[in-house]
Each structure stands twice: as C-alpha cells, then as structure tokens.
Amino acid sequence: MKGLVLSFVRGEEGFLLSTEALLIGTITVLGLIVGLAEIRNNVVQELGDFSQAVAQLSQDYAYTSVSDSNVPSGIWTYGSMFSDSTDVQQAQATDANGITVTTQAFVDGE
Fold first, then answer.
1. What is the arithmetic mean of pLDDT over 79-97?
2. Torsional sign, CA 43, 45, 48, 52
3. Which of 7, 13, 34, 75 is least enclosed by beta carbons within 10 angstroms?
4. Residue 107 and residue 50: Cα distance in Å, rounded?
5. What is the spatial distance between Cα 73 and Cα 45, in angstroms, rounded to a whole number?
6. E strands of the chain, at which residues?
7. Are 108 and 101 within 8 A, CB to CB?
8. In this structure, are residues 63 and 80 in contact, taking their beta carbons and an 8 Å threshold?
9. What residues contact residue 91 under an 8 Å CB cut-off, 6+ apart?
10. pTM, rounded to two decimals
C-alpha cells in the first residue's frame, strides 16, 4: 500500500495533459460567456430598432369615388379615407442584467 501511495506522489505522468485540458476548458467557457453576452446585447438592440420601426409605420390611405359612365344605371362607389393615429411612446429606461433599454418619445410627422 505504501508503494502505491509513493508511486502516486512521485508519478507526474499526465499532469501536463490535465493542466492543458483545464486551461483550454476555462478559456473556452470564458470565451463562450463573453460571446453570448455580446449576442444578447445585439439581439436586444435589434429588437429595439425593430420596435421603433413598427411604431413609425403609417397606414394612412384615401381614395375618391369611382364611377362607370358606360353603364346606364350609373354605377359608382363612395370614396374612403383612413388616417392612422399618431403613435406616441413614453420615454422609458429598463435595466436588465447590465443592459439598459431606453425608448424615446416621438411624434410621427407624416
């Protein structure tokens, strides 16, 4: 038993391989954490940009009456119009895990 313990104490076979594996694993995990944090930040930014774009969409439309003079009964339709209401957002800041998302108030000028 004493010989087995001494062989474990004196033997350093595989020490470098396990140390290398530990360092490579640690660096890989740190790289993944940093990379995923950057992906999270960019996804949040793109979603914020998308929400601003959707908020600024204008769905106004209008058309005048349409008639057909070739038909004796005088077929015609009324015109129509729709005016999209102004989308006003409140300025708001939200902080979640170090990400600050701020939405600014704006008035649609169309």
1. 66
2. negative
3. 13
4. 17
5. 59
6. 61-63, 66-68, 75-77, 80-82, 92-96, 99-103
7. no
8. yes
9. 102, 103, 104, 105
10. 0.47
Residue 55 has pLDDT above 50, yes or no: yes
**CA–CA distances in Å: residue 16 to residues 13, 21, 26, 101:** 8, 8, 15, 46
The pairing of beta strand 92-96 with beta strand 80-82: unpaired
pLDDT digits (tens, 9 = 90+) for 1-54: 787 777 766 766 666 677 788 899 999 999 999 999 999 988 888 888 887 777
Both tokens assigned to 45: 């930014």
| Residue 66 structure tokens | 């349409």
